[in-house]
Design a protein that fits this description.
about 700 residues; OB fold (Dihydrolipoamide Acetyltransferase, E2P); Rossmann fold; seven-stranded parallel beta sheet; binds adenosine-5'-diphosphate; binds magnesium ion
Length: about 700
């Protein structure tokens, strides 16, 4: 039923409600308070103390407007037989037309001691009949609703309260009683009553838990359904991961796998053996050793006569992967190629032809792999490295395209070092299984991190120059811009390189790295850096992701206050890859609160998960929901920052649910299915085929 027909609403107010997203009574019940206040019963003014939220009534004494124009404030005295309160409304000169001496007002607000008298600033007020009985003596825990200028929280409260019992009595619960018992959550109707009319904080908590779990559960069920539908309609190549193959692959690796790496590989082996396409997210901090895990999956595919592809977000990273993989596979028969936008037309065509005919086993590339004509002969495994650098859409596109082009769905492994927020949103929306590498490979020594102000630059560079000269360490110097023209007043690679060469780093071998260098130049420089023929790379953030040169043990980041927290962590992850004690210096001076929070955070922890959480806190929820997600989230109660435990519970329960009733077609699940489709059918693209 439209709210328009509720007592006291009507067409005008209904239009205002609509702007808050409330059209029906059901919407109204789901218009949740964003906080609660203790409403005290009316008290004689003499009994009122400072710093309390109070309700009082009295007669208006003298009034006045103080100050000028729109900024003027309106002041009034409120007098009862026991004493006097001083009321002030800022920017409210217009009140002089509405509040007059002699009126009786009931006001509510927070008191402050101001000199000798008690003051209430910007109190809520209403004119009342002087003969009206005093408000009920009982105190109330009152909801405060998201409101608008034309519709106050009180008005919303007045609309909801009289219909609350009647309306909630009509609500059927889509969660069975047995489930509610198991999870100790109240019935839906009860939860909604508690939200709008709690007796205290405990009621709110109880209601909140039910509603949050409900939201997360519906979402997870939606994802589980979606996953099932995807899998029903597409087959992947089953990949042989017998022990003989396993031994063969492992023998190629130049080190012993850690137990985390081994564990993840076991999970992947299981996935690959099936014709159900793998869709797995591998998360692990920078430097945790994700690449070999990916390589394992790819080589398993190749050993089974299928192809494998690895997609990286930057050319430098693709080139590096190509380099590492070629080296590891030296002398094997695996045919590997590198496909990036930097290729000439003829070379490119040749690679594409051989991919289509199956004459290439393993291709490594950038998003050039996405471009239209790439058709695989038989793509078995697709790895997307540093997936957070690719947009959701690109990822989806890649998946669809490879499906179309090769007739089979590849087993997909996406890798990231940024667990939250993007991973979280993927876990929520991307129907992924998640594997985690927790520890770092052995033999790493922790990175010393310093944050210093620009005034200390000389000391930093002189110290670093000393370490390079004495101990043959190598360094990265990172700047926010390539040249002066693009720098906008910030330090840039070209000028800084020149300055260092002529000053603090005189005599050291320096080279630039940035996105505008030609591929051959960049490859040559990276090669020489790896070989120890360059002492320091002066670079933009192109080196941010994935670059792996174990002997590089020093990093300096200029204008550090300008980078995001996760980005700083990624940058720092370029060092600390060998056994030398590494150093990372962030030069910067924060001018904003957030900037300061970021620098504090990066200095105080080296743990990627913690960094990600802090980043999440600093940037807030807003950013975790990309364009696609925001429309379909409908998370109003659940807060992903604090409800991780509930989210995990919902995930587990949803899986169980789908196992018991794969299509949610049992009659007992009919209502649940309907609510689910209403909420997520469109957003998740779930076909309602029953
Ligand atoms: P990331 O997870 O950031 O992609 P990489 O895969 O680049 O990390 O690995 C970082 C470094 O650790 C590389 O130099 C790699 O050779 C090395 N590494 C990976 N696994 C191990 C291991 N089990 N033992 C020793 N070194 C390892
Ligand atoms: Mg990597």
């Amino acid at each position: 039923m439209p709210v328009q027909y509720l007592p006291g609403v009507g067409p005008r107010l209904a239009a205002v409600y609509k702007r808050l997203g409330v059209v029906t009574v059901s919407d109204l019940l789901h218009h949740f308070p964003h906080r609660y206040e203790f409403e005290h019963s009316e008290r004689p003014i003499a009994e009122i103390g400072a710093e309390q939220v109070v309700t009082a009534r009295g007669e208006v004494g003298a009034t006045r407007v103080a100050g000028m124009g729109r900024k003027a404030r309106f002041e009034a005295n409120l007098i009862d037989p026991t004493g006097r309160l001083h009321l002030t409304w800022f920017n409210s000169a217009f009140l002089r037309k509405r509040i007059h001496p002699g009126m009786t007002l009931r006001i509510q607000g927070k008191t402050k001691k101001y000199g000798s008298y008690m003051q209430v600033v910007n109190p809520k007020w209403e004119v009342i009949d002087p003969e009206a009985p005093a408000g009920e003596r009982s105190e109330r825990y009152r909801p405060v609703y998201p409101a608008s200028e034309d519709l106050s929280s009180e008005q919303i409260d007045k609309t909801i309260q009289p219909i609350l019992d009647e309306a909630t009595a009509l609500i059927e619960d889509h969660l069975a009683e047995s489930y509610r018992k198991q999870r100790s959550i109240p019935e839906l109707a009860e939860a909604l009553r508690l939200v709008h009319r709690p007796e205290g904080e405990d009621d709110v908590k109880r209601a909140r838990r039910r509603l949050a779990l409900d939201e997360l559960l519906l979402l997870q069920l939606g994802i589980a359904l979606k996953r099932r539908q995807l899998r029903q309609h597409s087959d992947a190549v089953a990949i042989n991961t017998a022990d003989a193959v396993d031994e063969h692959i492992i023998a190629r690796f130049p080190f012993q796998l850690t137990s985390d790496q081994r564990g993840v590989i076991e999970e992947i082996r299981k996935d690959l053996a099936s014709t159900t396409p793998m869709n797995r997210l591998l998360q692990g901090d920078v430097g945790s050793g994700k690449t070999v895990v990916a390589l394992y999956a790819m080589l398993a595919a190749v050993a089974s006569g299928a192809q494998a592809a690895l997609m990286a977000p930057t050319e430098i990273l693709a080139e590096q992967h190509y380099f590492t993989v070629t080296e590891m596979l030296e002398g094997s028969r695996v045919r590997i190629e590198l496909l990036t936008a930097a290729l000439g037309a003829a070379e490119r065509k040749s690679i594409l032809d051989r991919l289509a005919s199956g004459d290439i086993d393993l291709v490594i590339g950038t998003h050039a792999l996405l471009s239209k004509p790439v058709a695989f002969h038989r793509l078995g495994v697709l790895v997307i490295d540093e997936q957070h650098r690719f947009g959701v859409h690109q990822r989806a596109e890649l998946r669809i395209r490879t499906e179309m082009n090769s007739g089979v769905v590849p087993h997909t492994l996406v890798m990231t070092a940024t667990p939250i927020p993007r991973t979280l949103s993927l876990t929520l929306f991307g129907d992924l299984d998640v594997s985690t590498i927790k520890g770092l490979p052995p033999g790493r020594s922790p990175i010393a991190t310093r944050v210093v102000v620009p005034g200390k630059s000389r000391e930093v560079y002189e110290y670093v120059a000393g370490r390079i000269a004495d101990k043959h360490e190598q360094a990265y110097i990172v700047l926010p811009a390539i040249d002066e023209a693009s720098g906008g007043g910030l330090k840039d690679v070209r000028s800084h390189l020149k300055q260092l060469e002529e000053g603090w780093f005189e005599g050291l071998r320096l080279a630039p790295i940035h996105g505008r260098l030609k591929r051959e130049t960049r490859e040559r420089i990276m090669h020489r850096f790896r070989a120890g023929q360059i002492d320091a790379l002066v670079a933009t953030t192109v080196i941010e992701v994935g670059v792996d040169v174990p002997n590089a043990s020093i990093m300096i980041v200029e204008h550090a206050e300008r980078f995001g927290l996760s980005q700083l962590h990624q940058l720092r992850g370029r060092v600390g890859r060998g056994s030398t004690k590494s150093l990372c210096v962030f030069i910067g001076e924060a001018t904003t609160e957030d900037g300061k929070a970021r620098l504090d955070a990066i200095a105080s922890t080296g743990d990627g998960f913690e960094i990600a959480e802090r980043d999440f806190e600093i940037r807030g929820m807003g950013e975790i929901f990309g364009p696609r997600q925001s429309g379909s989230t409908s998370l109003r109660v659940a807060d992903l920052r604090t409800d991780m435990a509930l989210l995990n519970l919902a995930r587990r329960d949803a899986r169980q649910w789908i196992e018991d009733d794969p299509g949610l077609t049992k009659p007992t699940n009919a209502l649940l299915r309907r609510r689910l489709m209403e909420q997520h059918g469109e957003g998740l693209g779930i076909a309602d085929v029953g």
